[in-house]
Amino acid sequence: MSRAAQAEDPPRCVPLRAGPVLERAAFHELRRTMELSCFKWDVQVGDTTALAPFPLLLDAATWAHLADLAERLTHETLAAEQEILHRPALQRRISLPRAHQRLFGPGAPPTPAAARVMRFDFHFTTEGWRVSEVNSDVPGGYTEATHLPALMAGFFPGTRAAGDPTKHLVDALLGAAQDLGSLALLSAPGFMEDHQVIAHLARELRDRGAAAVCASPDHIRFHDGRAHLVSAQQGGPLGAIVRFYQAEWFPRLPSAVDWAPLFVGGRTPVCNPGIAALSESKRLPLVWDELGARLDTWRRLLPETRDPRDAPWARDDGWILKSAYCNTGDTVSMRPHMTPLQWATLALRVSLAPSGWVAQRRFVTVPLETPIGPRLPCIGVYTVDGRAAGVYGRVTEKPFIDGAATDAAVLITETDA
Amino acid sequence: MKREDVHHLWAPRDATFSPWVKPVLFAHLGEEVAPKPPPAPPPWVEERIVAPLHAHVQATPAGEHPYRSAPRGLDTALILDLPGAAGVRVGAALGRHGFLPVPLYNAIPAPEGVIEYAEVMEALVDAAESLAGISPDAPPAFLLDQRRMGTGLLLKAGRFDNRSVVFAGDFPSAKTLSRAGVRRAALVQRESARPAGDLLPILVSWQEHGIEILHVRTDVNGPAEVLRVARPALFEAIGAWFDRMGLHRRRDGTFGGVIPESPSGG
């Protein structure tokens, strides 16, 4: 069980606000640019436009504060991973897939990192800033966090983007690959849902002179721990691999696909390295008390988190449920936002396999008045190799962030105007 | 011509239905493209699509529709479910009859793709300039590729699987269509008397919200027929589920993925 301490000092005023809405013509052109040049192909869903026509404005002091918190959280997360790597009992407790448990045995050397990128989802609540989770394995949203704020800042003098996570990541990847070969960017051949992220990163790498190839895990072969690309179009040794393929999906691949060196024993650096699967588990807080690593920042910011068997989620709507490996909020569940049948189905699933789930106390996000009505913001802060690198902003009507959230540019105001 | 100019002509800034234009094929065009003179519009567009729809509107009893007097059936949305570039060419031709073509092609146009999209992309470029001047309030003509689900195609390992289906979220809601004055929707198909499985639930939903569904065929002369669409029976729903199960839909809503090798162990 993890029991969060008081999150932060109680808020004196909301450090975040919505800016004015862009003129229709300007927003139309911004959207067109995102669609045609920035790999943003999912802007329209039914009657809803998934790009906010206004920015979220964050004062510079608050951004510095969040950046500092994210860097501390990164440091603590990495320390926790290193401990759990050699403790099979804890790996079972966090519901790490069994195939990964077998890999992360004693003495298995983790594959080196080409870069380490994480995204921490911050929410400004009635108790101050809280973190709902870290996207530690395959965080996305780079184009929304890079190009959208850069384009939006052009309309709001005195503001700037919080950073450029794409550039930071590409810098790190190029540094890791050096002259060792091409970079392969892997995404899933089955669902392929992350192709636009990969395509975006590949173009940025090519623009910097690197040979970057979009591929799938079955295009990679390992010889003596070194990765080689095998495809009809291109082949040869790889200098680095970008793994945009969720860790828990690898065990489902055909046995002929040699994916283990992406996690342990590989000599070609990988981003994110397979060890990230350890901290991607939403059940990680359940083993905090058994770690030597100091996790003070996590304890301050993460809502109380329990094994579902130890939480009264079935009768208390103050608890939410999410699966251990929850992606884009797809399994975040709150009874008031579900039909009775959906809730009954979920309750059965959790009751049958509680070790694959986690219960977390709800927090109350302070709503923002925006030009499209009250919205709940989420500020996703990236770190690349431990340094804060930018922000992915989203707003939603629901009290949790999922695939239906609206992307919003987060801009830093130089003054408190 | 710049890629942005092509997209602008297909998705004019002030047009009601521009937001639904899928950007994927446009994003895969070169930065600069050279349009060729488009082929002459299919001669049967007037005879087999426009005239039957107009006749149906004229035959509608007075008072049934407040928009009955709209010229040439402009209270009618179209879904052109035609193969490949034919949909683009017919859509562009319908622009001259007061419709706004809205491309809904949503697959990655990989050169080694199962479904080949180069010709569709060329047609989008070639037809773009012919679209200038369409009223921003024009009713939509949604363009789909009848080949999208790859029915009957052989899937070989190593090819890029860009088969696709459409979902309700790819279209405006029935409420939005009604607000824009749309009272009926005509499904335009070739060599097919029934809606594709992925379109069926969309048409059912529209029908349940009071939009009359018509069916028009481009391969035969005939009247626009009222289509009574029903929710699929259980066995049809299961069949449609199997059809979609193998498709590679991504989190961004687009389709495409390399077909994996079969495991060597069999």
Ordered list of secondary-structure elements with their pairings:
The complex is a heterodimer of chains A (417) and B (266).
Chain A: E1 16-18, H1 24-37, E2 44-45, E3 48-49, E4 56-59, H2 60-84, H3 88-93, H4 98-103, E5 117-125, E6 128-135, H5 142-153, E7 159-161, H6 165-177, E8 182-187, H7 195-207, E9 212-215, E10 220-223, E11 226-230, E12 235-244, E13 270-271, H8 276-280, H9 296-301, E14 305-306, E15 319-323, H10 340-352, E16 357-361, E17 368-370, E18 373-384, E19 387-396, E20 406-408, E21 410-413
Parallel strand pairs in A: 4-21, 8-9, 8-12, 12-13
Antiparallel strand pairs in A: 1-4, 2-3, 5-6, 5-18, 7-21, 10-11, 11-12, 14-16, 15-16, 17-18, 18-19, 19-20
Chain B: H1 3-10, H2 24-27, H3 44-59, E1 76-82, H4 85-95, E2 100-103, H5 118-127, E3 140-145, E4 160-161, H6 174-179, E5 184-189, H7 200-208, E6 212-217, E7 225-226, H8 234-245, E8 257-258
Helix pairs in contact in B: 4-5
What global shape of chain B is seen?
globular
Over the alpha carbons, how many angstroms does the gyration radius of chain B reach?
19 Å
- Rounded mean pLDDT of chain B is 84
Strand order of the largest sheet of chain B: 2-3-1-5-6-7
Average of the residue pLDDT scores of chain A: 90
Give the % helix of chain A: 25-40%
Shape of chain A: globular
Question: In terms of structural class, how would the helical and strand content of chain A be classed?
Answer: alpha+beta
One letter per element, helices H and strands E, the order of chain B comes to HHHEHEHEEHEHEEHE
**Poorly predicted ranges of chain A (pLDDT <50, ≥5 residues)?**
1-5
Structural class designation of chain B: alpha/beta
Write down how many β-strands of chain B occur, each being a DSSP E stretch of 2 or more residues.
Answer: 8
**Proportion of β residues of chain B?**
5-15%
What integer value in Å does the Rg of chain A equal?
Answer: 21 Å
Major sheet characteristics of chain B: 6 strands, mixed
Domain module count of chain B = 1
Low-confidence stretches of chain B: 63-70, 259-266
Number of helices of chain A: 10
Beta-strand fraction estimate of chain A: 25-35%
GO molecular function (chain A): ATP binding; ligase activity; metal ion binding
Protein name (chain A): Glutathionylspermidine synthase pre-ATP-grasp-like domain-containing protein
InterPro entries (chain A): GSPS_pre-ATP-grasp-like_dom
Domain Glutathionylspermidine synthase pre-ATP-grasp-like (chain A): 60-402
